[in-house]
Amino acid sequence: HYHDSEISVDALSQYLNVSGTYFSTLFKKEKGINFINYLTNVRMEKALHLLNTTEEKTYNIAEKVGYTEPNYFSYVFKKHYGVSPSNYRKSK
Fold first, then answer.
1. Does residue 72 sit within a domain?
2. What's the confidence (pLDDT) of residue 2?
3. Assigned domain for 4 exists
4. Is residue 41 part of a domain?
5. Residue 92, pLDDT above cutoff 80
6. Which pTM value belongs to this model?
7. What distance in Å separates the CA atoms of residue 60 and residue 62, rounded to the nearest whole number?
8. C-beta separation of 64 from 75 below 8 A
9. Which of 3, 24, 37, 82 is deepest in the core (most CB within 10 A)?
10. DSSP H helical ranges for the chain
């Protein structure tokens, strides 16, 4: 459910009926990365795939990968890949 904008450590720990600290510790132990970074990586990989395989507008891709604010999505994408989503698409 990477596309759910409401996903968070708190939401998942409540769903699993464990503390946020326990969830975070266990997640990092199992995956070797904290939950937020993992989620961001998954979302960015999906966004990259959509940019490569569709002509969808950036704001639609942002929504599909779990970002409610297209500007924040663009910020995270640029921080992750070093280029904005629109410039990435133009360069391919």
1. yes
2. 65
3. no
4. yes
5. no
6. 0.88
7. 5
8. no
9. 24
10. 9-16, 20-31, 35-53, 58-64, 70-81, 85-91
Could you report the per-residue pLDDT of 79-88, keeping only the tens digit for each?
Answer: 999 999 999 9
Burial class of residue 59 in the structure, from the number of CB atoms within 10 Å of its CB (0-12 exposed, 13-18 middle, 19+ buried): middle
Look at the chain and report how many structural domains it folds into. 1
In this predicted structure, the answer to whether residue 6 has a pLDDT above a threshold of 80 is no
Query: What does the pLDDT look like over 49-65, one tens digit per residue?
Result: 999 999 999 999 999 99
Sign of CA dihedral 68, 72, 74, 77: negative
* Euclidean distance between CA atoms 12 and 34, whole angstroms: 13
In a domain, 87, yes or no: yes
Tokens of 12: 């998942």
The H or E element containing residue 54 is none
Domain that holds residue 70: 9-91
Whole-Å CA distances, 17 to 4, 6, 14: 19, 17, 5
- Determine the straight-line distance between the first and last CA of the chain, rounded to whole angstroms: 28
The structure tokens listed for 45 are 């990989």
